[in-house]
Amino acid sequence: MALSLLYYAQEFLRGEWAKKFLAAKTAPLVTPPHFRNYPELTGKTCTHQLICMMACPAPGAIDVVMTPEGWKPRIHIGHCIRCGLCVEACPNGVLTSGRILESMFYDNTKLSFSFRIDVDTEKCMGCGNCAVACPVNKLIDAQMSHGGRASTDDLLLKVSEGKCHVLHVEKCTGCKTCENHCPNEAIRVARLLEAIHSPEEEL
Amino acid sequence: MTLLQSLKNIVRSKSIHVAYVDVGSCNGCDIEVLACLAPRYDIEQYGIYVHNNPREADVLLVIGAYTPGWEEKLQSLWQKIPDPKVAIAIGNCPISGCLFNRPHTLVDPPVSKHIPIAAQVPGCPPRPTEILSAILSVAPTVFKDFEVRK
Ligand code: SF4
Ligand code: SF4
Ligand code: SF4
Ligand code: SF4
Fold this sequence. Notes:
heterodimer; A: alpha+beta; Alpha-Beta Plaits; two-stranded antiparallel ribbon; 8 strands; 26% helix; 23% strand; B: alpha/beta; Rossmann fold; 5-stranded parallel beta sheet; 5 strands; binds iron/sulfur cluster
């Protein structure tokens, strides 16, 4: 009798069972390798084209800073939404996250940017702040006068007849300087981001 | 430490009650909190119970970028929670306002301006595992030996 009780106790009152009963059954799930976490640096050289910042949809999530080893993108946790667009947009492969770079390579995709500039002619007063502030305009006509009037038509933005006119939207780099300098919120820059399946021969 | 206190600590660590409040989110983080309840993550096996009553909560999960409608409500909700209590910010929204924090919007992040936040789980949205481990890591420091500390 005592022997069989002992046998049962030994068989069923195992520490392992008690532990399993009291503690969690499964450990918290591990993060799978394809999870797109915060982008990390691959160690490739950043050329400070700021395309990552242009692609990023989250305010304050990424900036590119000068470090002793050169320019480096910096991700701000708490702002970054882990969308991975900066990883896809970078032409130099400086950033990596999950399997984005691999799948871009296999699917042969890349991101293409274009910008649309809308000037609200109701609000625009023709002050020319936008045209003077625009860094692309600055390269074309460094002497551009106050007021945004200029002789050449190669400019991106130009003021004529008291209104701002967009002449060459394809030259816009999407910096939004104009938007920040307009006193009347008349000019808006929209970014159009397209994932394109580049044709095989382009590789 | 008395035997009674160690018994209390054990019981406390196995019974963490969570309430969550959405102060203006896109609902993404709310769904991740709900996913914690589902069998895949099964938050109850760790002794964490989610039910939305601040009066019996220990942990408040704050989700969302703080819209003006919450001006007095969040404070009074926080005061309704009995001590010991802790608030955890879930997602980017209560930390930085995430995508909503743009000029001409009404959101007023971070939520730590309005109630004390003990831990932040960044991500848009964070993974359920990240939420789970944040609750588990914050709980011992807040609830262990609470009576003795006081
Ligand atoms: S992952 Fe998305 S949100 Fe985060 S820095 Fe890159 S582009 Fe911005
Ligand atoms: S967003 Fe385009 S138009 Fe505006 S300042 Fe920058 S480059 Fe010029
Ligand atoms: S800065 Fe604004 S108001 Fe002035 S010309 Fe440009 S769009 Fe018009
Ligand atoms: S952090 Fe992202 S997912 Fe969570 S509520 Fe805010 S916007 Fe939605």
